[in-house]
Specification:
Number of helices: 0
Radius of gyration: 14 Å
Low-confidence stretches: none
Shape: globular
Largest sheet: 7 strands, antiparallel
Mean pLDDT: 92
Helix content: under 10%
C-alpha cells in the first residue's frame, strides 16, 4: 500500500460534498478513514484506482471519476464522485 493525500467530491443535485485527508492506495482501491455525523469512525474503500489517470504537468498526481449504484427509498440511484490523489513522500 502507498500513502496518499486525497480529495473526494460527492456530486449531488442540491450540493457537492468534499472530503479530504490522508489515505492509502492498493493496485485497485483507495482506502480512507472517516468519521460519521454521529462521531463513529469507519473505513471507506473506493475501487477507483484503475479509473484514475495522471494529471498533466505534475508528478505523482492522479484524478478520475467513480460512480456506484445505491438503494435509496426502495429505488436504485447513481452516486458520482470526483477523485484526486497525490502520492505522499
Amino acid at each position: 500500500m502507498k500513502k496518499v493525500i486525497y480529495s473526494i467530491t460527492k456530486l449531488g443535485k442540491i450540493e457537492n460534498t468534499k472530503v479530504t485527508g490522508i489515505g492509502y492506495i492498493t493496485d485497485e482501491d483507495l482506502i480512507t478513514a472517516n468519521v460519521s455525523k454521529t462521531g463513529k469512525p469507519y473505513i471507506r474503500i473506493f475501487p477507483c484506482v484503475k479509473n484514475c489517470h495522471p494529471v498533466m504537468n505534475s508528478t505523482d498526481e492522479f484524478k478520475g471519476a467513480y460512480y456506484e449504484i445505491v438503494e435509496y427509498n426502495e429505488r436504485d440511484i447513481e452516486v458520482n464522485y470526483y477523485i484526486w490523489f497525490k502520492l505522499a513522500k
